[in-house]
Amino acid sequence: MTAGAATGEQTEARGPESGTEPDLTGAELTGGLNGWSTAASTAAGVEEMVLLDGPLGIVSKAMDERDTSLIMPSGTALGATWNPELISEVGQVIGQQGVERGVSAILGPNLNMPRSPLTGRGFEMFSEDPFLTGVLGAAWIEGVQSQGVGSCTKHVVANDTETERRRMNSRVEQATLRETYLRPFETAVRSANPWMLMMAYNRVNGTHCSQNAELISVLKDEWNYDGVVVSDWYGVDDTIEAANAGLDLEMPGPATYLGARFAAAVAAGDVAQPRLRDAVQRVTRLADRTGRRSGGTAPAPAHLRSQEEQRDVLRRAASESFVLLENKDDALPLDMSGIRTLAVVGPNAQKPCFQGGTFATVRPEGEVVTPLDAIREAAGPGVEVLYEPGAAPSSALSLTDLGSTAPDGTPGVLLEVLSAGDAEDVLYSEVRKASAFVWFGPVPGLGSGVPGRARITAHFDLPSAARWSLGAGGTGVSSLRVAGTEVLVVPPPAPDDVMGVVARADTQHIDLDMPAGRVEVVIDMAFQPGRVQAITAVATPEQVTDPLAAAVDLAARADTVVIVVGDQQGSSRESADRTTAALDPASNRLVDAVTEVATETIVVVNASRAVLLPWAEKVKAVLMVWFPGQEFGPALASLLTGNTAPSGRLPVSFPLQNEDIPGWGTGLDAELTLDYAASEPMGYRHFQAAERKPRYAFGYGLGYTTFELEDAVASVGSTRRGPASDGFSDVTVRATVSNRGGTEGRDVVQAYTKAPGETDFRLAGFTALKVDIGETREAKIALDPLGFRRWNSSETEWVVPTGEWEVRVSRSASDEGILCRIAL
Q1: pLDDT in tens, 100-116
Q2: How far are the Cα atoms of 187, 349, 452, 723, 764 from residue 785, in angstroms, in the given order?
Q3: pTM over 0.85
Q4: Strand 477-482 relative to strand 517-527, pairing
Q5: Can you tell me the distance from the alpha carbon of 720 to that of 447, in angstroms, rounded to the nearest whole number?
Q6: Residue 250's closest CA among 38, 53, 101, 67?
Q7: What are the boundaries of each domain within the chain?
Q8: Using CA atoms, how far apart are residues 428 and 452, in angstroms rounded to an integer?
Q9: What Cα–Cα distance (Å) separates residue 647 from each residue in 127, 318, 504, 813?
Q10: Residue 499 burial by Cβ neighbours in a 10 Å radius (0-12, 13-18, 19+)
Q11: 477: helix, coil or strand?
Q12: Which neighbouring-strand residues pair with 731?
């Protein structure tokens, strides 16, 4: 591919020897200013633009726990709503939060595919189906951008493995790459046109994405994408390759490979001048769109909501995301008139999980009502609601969660920055309510590019001696001292894994006996110059009593038990994958033990991924709630008591066992290559192709009523034989749905297609409709024209298989439903 191919211009590079000086105006715009802002250009009339991480909320520039924003439902939770209109409202809410914080673009949504439930970052992703992911992602983008804030849609492409993500190579056959992994991005570009697209860290078929001319040409030349193509943070390692491939912006700043080096490469003739002009025009266009152009005006937000209205959107999104997987004997909704004692057990009832562990951690804005408190309020005065955690936290806690104080007695820890060496010259000092800190670029009081030290000091008042596990880590050599004695030294991370260590908040631990009384814990980290610095301190006190026994005793005395289990924030995390789809063993032990003594048991699963549920047959009801955002508590209580009804449908397939996972047992080879052939087709198509039965199928979900799909017919309207990439036909499905139960409800009717000669069905359309008691309604589904294409790798073009297509109208991917046939 030539240097200009990614811009649609076949122009030879021309260096100084040609006698014509190239125009380098605005080259500074192609490199970031700092960790969160783009550079300004007086010549181009472009102001700085703030790019902050998402998509679960607006992340602090400085990753400061005091900077708060609303926590949105995770990508998988939004995927479970199957409701583009509601997701667009969520996009408007986070866009409004961006407006209020002076943000130009939010890094989201994540349109990668959870190829496996083991991927550490799957909670950000919408679904295992490319069509559903693209439709819902486009809705989120439209909502955000309607507020005048850009979406930086991420990560192009095949970025579904966190292990060695900076170096690994995704080897994907072209048809699979086009039809599955690029497809959500194509739908988003064609439907919503995100103002930025972020290239992934990994390699695809041997070339890093930010330097992959073939990939960027698909975006710019085939899809006619007119926005900014930006690197993931520190995702560039070569000036000429990135510039010639079509990358427009390197982040973060100060620029290392683009910016001034981009200009120098053009001046030297290594990169064509039109390639620089293309990049500058795209960044300038972003400034126009976001109101960051000198003399321009900021776009007016489409829909501003009050704080209560914003929370109402998040409450509705949480409620619609909940998927009822089991409901034996109509155990839900709870009949509160027959309950005198309600036992709530499980650690997630009191400490729910809203997000995974990433750089994009969001601190919640305003009051957060826990599931336990919300259930107590909803139950009313006539019901005694008792609580036991039943299991210890599955991950270590911050020192502040354990009641630490600074040396002056203020709750929190004392954070200090010192110069390098043994001197005690404190350059920065502050009491903070966290015990993990990250700095991109300058370190407070010290600046950038120099060595130094960071220190955390915490005091604990222990009523009696106890055994604790203490952990420390960071980007330098970390020393852990307890009561003045050094007990642990943690070496610095390997140079090629610094970002991974920071993202994972890696720590090393030591078990030791803590004496009664006041104990001082100090973590002192000496670091060398680097693009990011971090220090982390955590602890886990030993359990004095058995939490499981107490929970079982409570469950045995209660009329009904609600168990709330799931992930902790470190269970799903950036830069690390899982080894099993199971919940932590303590959660499974808790459910098993409670079912031995309580017949009326409801389990709420607070994990935003497909999980193993080996006890599903033992309990009365199973409710999947994902990471539902900070309105989790009120939404859950409303559903349990019947004020709202579950209407979510699974966006991912739930396996019976680990061995059912696509690609189980495969991983990176010696060259860090992951061969996707071992896991394709993925998702529900894997279960069809392997003739395996999932525990719960993609698209499945129960309500508080019963729906019946009575008939369906598919018809073909106008047929176009133009470019296949533009679609070619108008296929409509009409289906009749009846509500045979005792309450109104919302059903999701799904249409799957199978091309001539294929063996599996693919989702091609869906619609949701509310149906009253005894009512029959018609569902009309316009099938996605792009879903009829198939990529011909030998001819490198899209084709539309002709002949008889099968269309299956059903209520899940494994439901036989009603079969229709059409001729194309």
Answers
A1: 999 999 999 999 999 99
A2: 11, 44, 58, 12, 8
A3: yes
A4: antiparallel
A5: 61
A6: 38
A7: 400-541, 707-823
A8: 11
A9: 16, 11, 34, 17
A10: buried
A11: strand
A12: 716
**pLDDT tens-digit readout, 374-422:** 999 999 999 999 999 999 877 788 999 999 999 999 999 999 999 998 8
Averaged pLDDT, 590-602: 97
Per the DSSP assignment, residues forming a β-bridge with 561 are 343, 601
Q: How far apart are CA 589 and CA 595, in angstroms?
A: 10
User: What's the angle, vertex CA 624, arms to CA 621 and CA 627, rounded to 5?
Assistant: 150
Looking at 2.60.120.380, 2.60.40.1940, 2.40.50.100, 3.30.70.100, the CATH number of the domain 400-541 comes to 2.60.120.380
Q: What tens digit of pLDDT does each residue of 424-433 get?
A: 899 999 999 9
Question: With contact defined as beta carbons under 8 Å apart, do 577 and 537 qualify?
Answer: no
Q: How many helices (H) and strands (E) does the chain have?
A: 17, 37
Query: Coil, helix or strand for 543?
Result: coil
Q: How far apart are CA 168 and CA 166, in angstroms?
A: 6
Neighbours of 294 (CB within 10 A): 12
The identity of residue 427, as a single letter, is: L
Structure tokens at 435: 């015990």
CA distance 636 to 73: 13
Q: What is the CA radius of gyration of the chain?
A: 27
Question: For residue 771, what are the CA distances in angstroms to 735, 776, 789?
Answer: 13, 7, 34
Q: Token pair 């991370």 is at which residue?
A: 493
Q: What are phi and psi of 133, to 5 degrees?
A: -60, -45
**At residue 799, does pLDDT exceed 90?**
yes
Token couple for 635:
């939404």
Q: What is the C-alpha to C-alpha distance for residues 329 and 326, in angstroms, rounded to an integer?
A: 10
CATH architecture under which domain 707-823 falls: Sandwich (2.60)
pLDDT of 811 > 90? The answer is: yes
In degrees and rounded to multiples of 5, residue 573 shows phi and psi of -155, 155
Question: Taking a C-beta distance cutoff of 8 angstroms, is the pair 182, 214 a contact?
Answer: no
DSSP 7-34: GT-------GGGS-----TTGGGGBBSS
Distance set, CA 518 to CA 351, 375, 408, 544, 760 (Å): 27, 37, 13, 19, 65
The SS3 call for residue 385 is strand
Q: What pLDDT is recorded for position 6?
A: 53
Q: What is the DSSP secondary structure assignment for residue 278, as one 8-state letter?
A: H
What is the distance between the alpha carbons of residues 711 and 805, in angstroms, rounded to a whole number?
Answer: 18
147-184: b (≥16 Cβ within 10 Å) or e: bbbbbbbbbbbbbbbbbbbbebbbbbeeebbbbbbbbb
Q: Give 685-749 as a DSSP string.
A: HHHHHHT---SB-TT--B-SS-EEEEEEEEEEEEE--S-GGG--EEEEEEEEEEE-SSS-EEEEE
Tell me how far apart the alpha carbons of residues 396 and 357 are, in angstroms, rounded to a whole number. Answer: 13
Both tokens of 57, joined, read 């909320």
Give the pair of three-digit tokens for residue 524: 């002192």
Q: In which order are the strands placed within the sheet that holds 196-199? A: 51-53, 105-107, 150-156, 196-199, 228-231
